[in-house]
Amino acid sequence: MITTPLLYLLSVALLAALLGTLEKITRHKLFTFLPAVVLIYASAMILAQLGFWQENRSLHDSYKDIKTILLPAMLFVMLLQIDLKAFAGLGRSLIIAYVASVFSLSFAFIALFWLFSLNSDAAGVFATLAGSWTGGTANMLAVAAALDVREELMGYALIVDSIDYTLWVMTLLFLVAFAPAFNRWTKAPLRFKTISEEEERGTQKVQPLPLVLLFLFSLAIAYLSNTLAALLSGLSQTTWSVLFATLFGLIGSRTRLKNVVGSPALSSALLMFLIALIGSQAHLRGFSEVPLYLGIGLLILLLHALIMVLIAKLFRLDLFSIGVASLANIGGVASAPILAAAYHRSLIGIAVLMAIMGYMIGTFAGLAIGYILQGLAA
User: Fold this and answer.
1) 314 to each of 15, 318, 328, how far by Cα in Å?
2) Tens of pLDDT along 69-122?
3) CB 80 within 8 A of CB 257
4) C-beta atoms surrounding 26 within 10 Å
């Protein structure tokens, strides 16, 4: 049993590094449906249940301090990848599909929560899930932290996210074969600009010094965000800190910081460490609510799908546009390009752009949904 803060942080980092590296080295199909972040959280949570880390004050304080610093730092680095100009150049049909995906998911979360008259714990679970399904895992962490969602409730959200998300990916890939018939039904013109994955990601080599300096700068941004947050009221300090980090990240995306090669890798590393850290403090007391959460999650996806089909018919959108917009929100960068490649490899860049936009949208959408769900909680 680990009892000291240093060994605790080292073991958490080692767990994240091992599973993250395993995903990169093996590229196994398992990681398509169960990304490394899910396996990292699950492994950390299992170790926590087994008592691998002692539940004491020093470890919990270390957890809170590190999370308070690294969460805004990660959000800042992650948002440097945002390219609003490139997103605006995607074209009318793709932008309509993306906006429709965000709003239909938001409506589905609120409608199903109200229909089932769920409680405050469920509000925490689905607010956290909304952060993921309108953005990504990083947005899930930001929303959970801002709304002070307990670690065990985050565990339920990740279970629903991984299982329902897997079924959704499989469904969208299955529907690719029916695209011609669907497009004839909606009378879609099938016109959009293609952007190659290579153009979006670049081929430059990572330089260690700029990346280290970016990390140091992100820590300074985290300190500034936390300091400013402490001066404000109305929202929790963590919420203000998350919002400031998001704002600074969007500003940074308009500067030369955007060109630092390797920033996506840095944000991914910080994300994996944070996921392992949170999982290490999750102590699930039972799984009796999981079937209900899984079922409601599937109903949310079904309602979202129905709305997207209606919008596709109304605006003459093709199946690719609504499918990739949906998966860009629900699956993010890890899976949206896979669906795009199933249509044509030249469309991968579109999926990447949409998924990256979720980094900006997910936190705001997740927080808005979360506050509404808290207000509706029985």
Assistant:
1) 48, 11, 21
2) 999 999 999 889 888 888 888 888 889 999 999 999 999 999 999 999 999 999
3) yes
4) 10
CB proximity list for 372: less than 8 A, separation 6 or greater: 110
CA–CA distance, 31 with 68 (Å, rounded to integer): 29
Report the 10 Å Cβ neighbour count for 158.
25
- Cα dist. 145→167, 237, 263, 278 in Å? 27, 10, 23, 10
Q: Exposed, middle or buried: residue 123 (CB in 10 Å: 0-12, 13-18, 19+)?
A: buried
Q: Which of 165-174, 202-211, 317-326 has the lowest mean pLDDT?
A: 202-211
- Please report the pLDDT score of residue 204 as a whole number: 64
Amino acid making up residue 219: L
Cβ neighbours of residue 323 closer than 8 Å, sequence gap 6 or more = 172, 175, 176, 339
Segment 343-358, tens digit of pLDDT: 887 778 888 888 888 8
Q: Kindly report whether the global pTM for this prediction surpasses the value 0.85.
A: no
Residues near 345 by beta carbon (within 8 Å), at least 6 away in sequence: 197
Angle between helices 57-79 and 348-376 (to 10 degrees): 130
For the chain, the maximum distance between any two Cα atoms, rounded to a whole number of angstroms, is: 63
- Per the CB < 8 A criterion, the answer to whether 109 and 130 are in contact is yes
Contact between 326 and 354 under an 8 Å Cβ cutoff? The reply is no
The one-character DSSP state at 231 is T
| 3-class secondary-structure state, position 53 | strand
Q: What is the distance between the alpha carbons of residues 96 and 36, in angstroms, rounded to a whole number?
A: 31
pLDDT of residue 82: 85
Domain count across the chain: 1
List, for residues 114-141, the tens digit of each pLDDT value.
Answer: 999 999 999 999 999 999 999 888 899 9
Contact in structure between 158 and 41 (CB atoms under 8 Å): yes
Query: Which one-letter amino acid corresponds to residue 116?
Result: F
pLDDT at 193 over 80: no
Domain range for 241 = 5-376
For the chain, what's the residue count?
378
Question: What is the C-alpha to C-alpha distance for residues 177 and 154, in angstroms, rounded to an integer?
Answer: 36
Task: Name residue 2's beta-bridge partners.
Answer: 53
> Quick one: average pLDDT of 174-203?
71
* Alpha-carbon span 187 to 20, nearest angstrom: 43
